[in-house]
Amino acid sequence: MDRPKILVVDDEKSIRDLLSAALGQWGYQAFLSTSGPEALGMLKGQLLDAALIDIRMPDMDGIELLRELKRYDSSMEVVIMTGYPTVTTAVEALKEGAYDYLTKPLIMDELKHLLARLIERRFLRKEVNTLRSRLGEQLAVNELVGVSPQMQAVKEVVAKVAVSDSPVMVEGESGTGKELVAAAIHRLSPRTKGAFIPVNCSAIPTDLLESELFGHVRGAFTGAVADSIGLFRSANGGTIFLDEVAELPPALQVKLLRVLQEKEVRPVGATKTHNVDVRVIAATNRQLEEALKDGSLRQDLFYRLNVVRVQMPPLRERKEDIPALVAHFLRQFNQRFRREVTGLDPEALAALMAYDFPGNVRELENLIERAYALGARDHLTLADLPSLGAGAKQAEASRPLPTLAEVEKDLILRALQVHKNDKEHAAKALGLSRRTIYRRLKEYGLL
């Protein structure tokens, strides 16, 4: 097994050197960084176990870096270090998810024991997650991986709507993770102890759909040799997820609408109804307005289901989530395949970032799983992703070169983002005068 990997972020060289030497002696592998932005850049394509970060640094302070690290990898343990301890700062650090809070000068023996506890806790958590995965109890909310504004918006809606009992409509292309959203809503809701039953409406033969959803009595049709309660009654007290709901035949959509209104189902061939207490979450990979227009989705059913709408963005519109998704899948497949793949080579990550993923997150997951299945170990390389490598090179060759003006604008905007909109620092970093950067921003319509 590889040595645990510890990220050290401190703008003081003496601290970095001290911690690098100590971590090496204690059996850890140290990754050293002088600033928050540099540390976040190092994370791409790497799986790290813990981070020791200083709270006072230029460009990005320790609390802000802590938030970004947790957004990228919620399982990473973070220890804050400071030479200026205050109760307020300690409380804020712990509130944001820090494992502990140490004051400088560091007591090395104390740090050594803290890291031992931290790594032991991380190992135990990994074992618990492995067992949960085998039992099918992995909390789906953890699967909503992403740091992009689009995914943050999805997570906020999920957290808000989960506490209610209202129907939800999830819209998005195939492979974007609509079922994960539904499962996350269920897990965060008061119904979490009830069943979560996903149903792919397009995968069930049309003549069996009504029976599958609402049940049947013995003798209702040829082959009905025993009573069946159906999926709605199986989900009683829990949540049912109807994927591809627009694929239901019109007659069945009418019956589904009645179930939603009356909260009762009638099995095929039965004369009496049964009460059901089920939350319904529906999804479609079609544009809802288009489905309404062509009549494949009834308006009255749409209005009943579309109380809250969650839009899952395609992966090509949130490429900044790719490194976090890769880290998530590496952890997942390391457990399943019993490997210790620690990250991606820069060339492989660049190819992933350049690809548009028509199959969305599911395609990314399949690419990485295929690499494991074909024997990938240590670091994934472009050779482990052959189909992606060829496609990325073709896409790169066919992509038109940006103009100098476009490159300049992109650099200026990136510099402002890194330096928190401090125009003087951004100008200095780019080798421009302050006047020039103000003039350019005015040209872009940003002043």
Q: What layout of secondary structure does this protein have?
A:
Layout: E1 5-9, H1 13-25, E2 29-33, H2 36-43, E3 50-54, H3 62-72, E4 77-82, H4 87-95, E5 100-103, H5 108-135, H6 149-162, E6 168-171, H7 178-188, E7 196-200, H8 206-214, H9 230-234, E8 239-243, H10 250-262, E9 264-265, E10 274-275, E11 279-284, H11 288-293, H12 299-305, E12 308-311, H13 322-337, E13 343-344, H14 346-354, H15 360-373, E14 379-380, H16 386-398, H17 404-418, H18 423-430, H19 434-443
Parallel strand pairs: 1-2, 1-3, 3-4, 4-5, 6-11, 6-12, 7-8, 8-11, 13-14
Antiparallel strand pairs: 9-10
Helix pairs in contact: 2-3, 6-7, 13-15, 14-16, 17-18, 18-19
Written overview of the protein:
The structure is a single chain. The protein has 447 residues and is α/β, with parallel strands linked by helices. The chain has 4 domains: 5-135, Response regulator (Rossmann fold), CATH 3.40.50.2300; 142-313, P-loop containing nucleotide triphosphate hydrolases (Rossmann fold), CATH 3.40.50.300; 316-398, Helicase, Ruva Protein, domain 3 (Orthogonal Bundle); 404-443, Arc Repressor Mutant, subunit A (Orthogonal Bundle), CATH 1.10.10. It is 49% helix and 13% strand. The strands form 4 sheets. A 5-stranded parallel beta sheet has the order 2-1-3-4-5, with helices on both faces. The N and C termini lie far apart (53 Å). Residues 130-141 have low confidence and may be disordered.
